Amino acid sequence: MTLVLFVVNLSRLAFLQRFSYNPLMKIVRLYTAADNESHFEDVEVEFNVQGRIETSALQPAEGINFCRASPTHLSDYHPAPRRQYVITLAGQVEIETGDGTIRRFGPGEVMLAEDTTGHGHITRVVGGEPRLYVFIPLK
Asked: What is the tens place of the pLDDT at every residue in 95-118?
């Protein structure tokens, strides 16, 4: 009986660890490094309890642009026009850096574009559907 309880408790622990609450949100930062190329970095946003919700620190922004790109949209190498959050709402996009690294972003995924100098990145819509997304320029 003790062995059975041990196995059951071990299973519960594995389940809880697999689905445990994580107070951090991951976003992808796109930045220009010393080599003048764009690179990706995973960044965690910390949440703080505020009343009945959790929220990150307030980040000053200038507004929001709602955008739509065709299923065949392709922008060759370009730097970001300004520091901005880019949030995909529908569809999928691939961002490629100069070293050939490609990251795919789908609905709900957030990228912080800070590669405002240098060689830049390629943006291509993939998956055969239009991409709906927002730009949130930062101050």
From this structure: 999 999 999 999 999 999 999 999
pLDDT exceeds 60 at position 20: no
Helix (H) or strand (E) holding 67: strand 65-69
Domains in the chain (CATH in brackets) are 22-137 (2.60.120.10)
CA atoms of 126 and 68, how far apart (whole Å): 13
- State how far the Cα of 132 lies from the Cα of 88, in Å rounded to an integer: 6
Helix (H) or strand (E) holding 32: strand 24-32
Q: Are the C-beta atoms of residues 98 and 14 closer than 8 Å to each other?
A: no
Beta partners for 124? 74, 94
Residue 36 tokens, joined: 């003048």
